[in-house]
Write a structure and sequence with these properties.
The protein is an all-alpha fold. The protein is globular. It has one domain: Growth Hormone, Chain: A (Up-down Bundle), CATH 1.20.1250. Strands 1-2 form a two-stranded antiparallel sheet. Helix 2 packs antiparallel against helix 3 and helix 4 packs antiparallel against helix 5.
Length: 231
């Protein structure tokens, strides 16, 4: 039986390319919500938690409330992702498609829409993304938060350069690529959000759309939804 030939669009759920695309979107969305939506991080709940505490301790403590709904929406997204994972074999494609549609709809909303609705929507789809795509090869990673990825890259760099560990070198390169993609997404998100304002989110929606198409073609080629280990 002939083995299936890899196509240029092969995109495994735990591949470097998938991780980089999602990290790009993660950085983009954080920059977008921070610039256009009252300085709230829709994807980075650590930042929201800190901002909540800082604002709660300040004279203008009422401002802390704006950080609570994204936090709750993030939790809801994780729960929905777990529910889909248990009940739907093709949940990964469904999550990507849902994220693409919601981000597109957010860009269609008028500027008069309360910022809270937008940040809640983005926090929800971001948590779906994190809960569904959380492996880079065999290693756990996060496409919207860099702290854990930075720790993993730094740790791997020691083993790679000091002990000449080839597996650690691959890990170092992979996590470095994720971090650079996240930073690149934040830079691009800042530029587009400054010029396009609310509609800048369509750029992120477009990236997810391309990712969804490539992933769908890849799954058709492989004939499976199971993650493919990187060799």
């Amino acid at each position: 039986m002939k083995s299936k030939e890899k196509k240029w669009y092969s995109l495994a759920p735990n591949s470097f390319i998938m991780g980089m695309l999602l990290a790009l979107v993660g950085g983009y969305l954080d920059a977008y919500t921070y610039i256009t939506r009252d300085g709230v991080f829709a994807t980075a709940q650590t930042g929201n938690t800190v901002l909540f505490a800082v604002r709660a301790a300040s004279p203008e403590y009422n401002g802390a409330l704006q950080n609570v709904p994204p936090f709750l929406a993030f939790i809801a997204g994780v729960l929905v992702a777990e529910h889909m994972k248990a009940r739907l074999d093709k949940h990964r494609r469904g999550v990507l498609a849902l994220e693409c549609v919601i981000l597109f709809i957010v860009g269609r909303l008028p500027g008069s829409i309360p910022n809270m609705i937008v940040t809640i929507s983005i926090a929800f789809v971001s948590s779906l993304q994190i809960a569904t795509f959380n492996k880079l090869g065999k290693w756990s990673y996060n496409s919207t938060i860099t702290t854990g990825n930075l720790r993993a890259a730094a740790s791997a760099s020691y083993e790679a350069f000091v002990h000449n560990d080839r597996e650690a070198m691959k890990k170092f390169i992979g996590f470095s690529a994720i971090i650079i993609s996240f930073i690149g997404g934040a830079l691009i998100g800042t530029l587009f959000s400054t010029f396009l304002e609310y509609k800048a989110i369509w750029i992120a929606s477009g990236i997810i759309l391309v990712t969804t198409i490539l992933y769908h073609k890849s799954r058709e080629q492989e004939g499976t939804e199971e993650p493919i280990e990187m060799k």
